[in-house]
Design a protein that fits this description.
Layout lengths: L1 H27 L4 H16 L9 H14 L6 H8 L3 H13 L9 H13 L3 H17 L7 H15 L8 H8 L3 H17 L1
InterPro entries: Cyclin-like_sf, TFIIB_cyclin
Organism: Halobaculum magnesiiphilum
GO molecular function: TBP-class protein binding
Length: 202
Amino acid sequence: MAEYDAADTKAASNRGESAAAIATAVRELQLPDRIGDAASDMLVVANEHDLLRGRGVRPFAAAALRIESVAAGLPRPLCRISTVLDVDELAAREAVKQLQGTGEVPLVLTDVEIVLIQLCFEADPPDSVATEAFACLEALEDSGKTINRSRAGIAAACLVYAYGLVDLASSPTQEEIAAMAGTTPMTTYTRRNELEAVLEAE
């Protein structure tokens, strides 16, 4: 009985902490209260799926605000939400994946995914190249190498690297891809080197 009482007390404490954190973030991010309410409801889903056990609630609060702001058509970058809630962006990104893995919340794209999709529309690579590019992006995101870096540079680097993995008769140059992404060849080169290091370490 004491164990259940302790668990109930902990759950109530988590709900109180998350509600206060979300309310503060909603004000600072200039979001309507309904998004905060929806984000709070999403934390109930996280608790029901036992995602909060042994973890801080704030990364999931950040994830819930990101998902709900996108779903409402008022997207706020995860990096900004994480700063407001004083949580690690990588932890918040992982929380987004875990929440979406429940199948009970809307699926949303990261900011870099959106840029890479736009770049693929512009460059029109074969499906095999596009698939490799998104696999490269996933590896970078999992390693935290997309935080505080140029989204265009990351997208360009992933596409450049993907073209190198697929045997094609002709491919656009790194300079051409960088131009399509709206970044510089040097930024693309730097991000590509980071990507290569991440993939080699796997």
